[in-house]
Amino acid sequence: MTPTILADARLPAGHISGIGRADIEISDGRIARIADAGSAATDGAERISLDGALVLPGLVEGHIHLDKTLLGLPFVPHRSGDSVAERIAAEKALRRELAYPVEQRAMRLIEQVVSHGTVALRTHVDIDNEVKLDGLHALLKVREEVRDLLDIQIVAFPQSGVMIEPGVTDLLDAAIGEGADLVGGLDPAGIDNDVKGQLDAIFGVAEKHGVGLDIHLHDFGPLGCSELREISARTEAAGLQGKVAVSHAFALGSVDDAELGKTAEALAKAGVAIMTNGPGPVPMPPVKRLRAAGVTVFAGSDNIRDAWSPYGNGDMVERAAVIGYRQGFLADEDLALALDLATHAAAWVLGLEGYGLTEGCAADLVAVRAESVAEAAASHPARMLVMKRGEIVAREGKLSRAP
Ligand SMILES: [Zn+2]
User: Fold this and answer.
1) Ligand 1 center from residue 337 Cα (angstroms)
2) Proportion of the chain above pLDDT 70, given as a percent
3) Mean predicted confidence (pLDDT) in 100-108
4) pLDDT value of residue 343
């Protein structure tokens, strides 16, 4: 592989002491050297001038549903249904009518997220008694096809419940056996009405295979917080600290301070991370308060043009802006924190090795025309260039390399 120099790149302020504009030398898929702009020897290397564009570590999508998207189809009008149970029913009805296979829809979404600078993602895939492991099989194939574009982690997700869908626990077990990376869960109280039953089942599968969990939790208020503390206790008991996440956790935004405090303490102690997408008109986890309590918070898009939501585009810088907007983040350091949820924090949750913008790290990078991280987060400009393991995969918002 020819070494590449990303010349005259702007680094995040204070990133490397004494270096503002830099030449980033890349070889064998890694960042070999970061030095003052103009100092890199160019013999034998491909030199790409960034003309002062800001370079960030590649974006990490912490929560997406590649199997659900309707991208590639004519726009499908949203069907009504407010509760989680109603949405599940609406999605199943629509799913039975779709002739456009998961592989093709997922591929459209992957092309889109890569063009926005995502270098790794965690997708949930529906597992139920109707689709069984079909969606998983499709995504396992897709993961292989796009391995040069981005890394994919798959959560076996019981979208229709566990205890109310006899047989699903066995399907989750089979899914992990066939290549899914984590076990999912869904509203143990709100959907299954059996917190102990669902958590016994999903932690049982996770412990059997030695994998982590990522649980959707929409349940609000003290009920949701008690589930979060129960998940934390089970995480510690199973020795799964740092391998468990809870997605949404609206409950953390809908309880009094004392309830929030004791729940945050339990999450931090158990190393249970919280994913937010900066949701619409529902309470959301208070990002700064959780971080201050030692809880890892990370970002994801969740639904992108599917039966759950017509919104979304898979741009994780824009997602950081949505989260920052909902949290009232205005100061530079707060905007940088918003972007951290979609970079370093999400990378930590996904367990990405060699992630970052320092010498020796994987050359998974994105360049944007912005003067600072704060400006990038607030205005989410188009991506100038996206690099995966040292190869350019997208330029100016378009894929430059076929899967
Ligand atoms: Zn989700």
Assistant:
1) 22
2) 100
3) 95
4) 98
Q: Which helix (H) or strand (E) holds 60?
A: strand 59-64
Give dist(CA 244, CA 267) in Å, integer.
Answer: 10
Helix or strand (DSSP H, E) at 319: helix 316-326
- CA 112 – ligand 1 centroid, Å: 18
- Ligand 1 centroid from CA 44, angstroms: 46
Looking only at the bridges linking them, the beta strands covering 365-368 and 383-388 are antiparallel
Residue 401 — pLDDT band, cuts 50, 70, 90? Answer: confident
What φ, ψ does residue 332 adopt, rounded to 5°?
-55, -45
Burial of 388 (0-12, 13-18, 19+ CB in 10 A): buried
CA 284 to mean position of chain CA atoms: 17
Sign of the torsion formed by the C-alpha atoms of 76, 80, 85 and 90: negative
How much distance in Å is there from the Cα of 124 to the middle of ligand 1?
Answer: 7
The pTM is what?
0.97
Tell me how far the alpha carbon of residue 303 lies from the centroid of ligand 1, in angstroms. 6
125: nearest Cα among 133, 117, 115: 133
Half-sphere exposure of 139 (CA within 13 A, CB side): 32
CA 216–ligand 1 middle distance (angstroms): 6
- Going from the Cα of 136 to the center of ligand 1, the distance in angstroms, rounded, reads 15
DSSP readout, 175-206? HHHTT--EEEEE-TTTTTS-HHHHHHHHHHHH
Q: Span 236-255, mean pLDDT?
A: 98
pLDDT tens-digit map of 311-351? 999 999 999 999 999 999 999 999 999 999 999 999 999 99
Question: Strands 118-126 and 151-157, how do they pair?
Answer: parallel
Distance 202 CA to ligand 1 centre (A): 17
3-state secondary structure of 244: strand
Report pLDDT for 100. 87
Give the Å distance between the CA of 74 and the centre of ligand 1: 23
C-alpha of residue 37 to centroid of ligand 1, in Å = 42
Q: Is the pLDDT of residue 402 over 80?
A: no
How crowded is residue 20: how many other Cβ atoms within 10 Å of its Cβ? 14
Mean pLDDT value of segment 187-209: 98
Mean pLDDT, the chain, integer: 96
Q: How remote is the CA of residue 302 from the centroid of ligand 1, in Å? A: 5
